[in-house]
Amino acid sequence: YQAKSSGGKSIIFFEDIAEKASYRLRLESELPVAIDTNQLILYYQPQVDTVTYRMVGVEGLIRWNHPELGMIAPNDFIPMAEEAGMIIRLGEWVLREGFLQAKQWEDDGLTLKVGLNVSMQQFHHPTFVLTLVRLVEETQVNPARIDLEITEVSAVEDIEETVETMNRLKELGFTISIDDFGTGYSSLSRLADFPIDTLKIPREFVEKIQPATTGYSMISSIIHLAKSLELEVIAEGVETLEQVNVLNRLECSRMQGYYFGRPMPHEQIPALYQK
Ligand code: C2E
Ligand code: MG
Ligand code: MG
Ligand code: MG
Prior knowledge:
Layout lengths: L1 E5 L2 E5 L3 H20 L3 E10 L4 E13 L3 E3 L5 H6 L3 H21 L5 E6 L1 H5 L3 H12 L6 E6 H5 L2 H14 L2 E5 L8 H4 L6 E4 L1 H4 L7 H15 L3 E4 L5 H9 L4 E3 L12 H6 L1
Parallel strand pairs: 4-6, 6-7, 7-8, 8-9, 9-10
Antiparallel strand pairs: 1-2, 3-4, 3-11, 4-5
The chain binds ligand C2E and magnesium ion (3 copies).
Organism: Exiguobacterium undae
Protein name: Diguanylate cyclase
Keywords: Membrane, Transmembrane, Transmembrane helix
């Protein structure tokens, strides 16, 4: 296999399935070292309120800056880390890094919410809440600045346990979002039982937002549902002005996507925040 750089992102070409498997094995064997040698990096993508046109938050998105292969996208190694039993360590790295950054921005006077993705194994791990307590102490972050993004799949596994864990996260002061809402299997009847704050509308619906499409009706249903449950909504993957306009008409005023900014190194966030 060979890494080719294009616009800061590496695209890996595989000759065949065996090569793909060896690529995966290489990543799997090198990930522990990557965690210890600062090859992982959190990028941050702006979230904008389109009524005030202010940046109100960012989502932390992990990348692996591999010394030979270049920037590796999370979809190439997060599922592998989950299967190989490394997601707990990796997830803790993400939380610590995101907490330190959120604390730094708060000290610098930026009013930003920092969203961090939590994998379902991490969420259901017996020490998850304790890890959060320890990391809050260690980093001195204000938990009110942190939004924990959980996928629907994590939420449906064991509803009683999930509600209990979520309640403890809320007691600690975190907010909770359901990522990619509508693509998983949540039972709508139980949604009201979850002490969550925000539904994130996935890019796959935003992509097909033209009126009279399934994307449009999914989005408008999610927005109505959120309203009736008194939850926030944020649309992901917003790339065009047309999408912005349709979302605004549907009264979804928090958006995230390439139209507003790509995931970027933390150094670039303050300047964008001031604009
Ligand atoms: P996600 O949490 O749903 O994140 C949104 C993904 O959409 C990100 O991909 C983001 O770069 C991409 N995106 C945002 N706006 C646009 C747009 O306008 N157009 C297009 N085409 N894409 C857009 P990314 O960074 O490759 O991350 C993919 C997934 O990997 C994330 O989906 C999340 O599930 C997972 N992930 C990323 N970072 C972490 C992490 O720290 N921990 C865990 N457990 N999972 C992570
Ligand atoms: Mg997310
Ligand atoms: Mg998402
Ligand atoms: Mg996702």
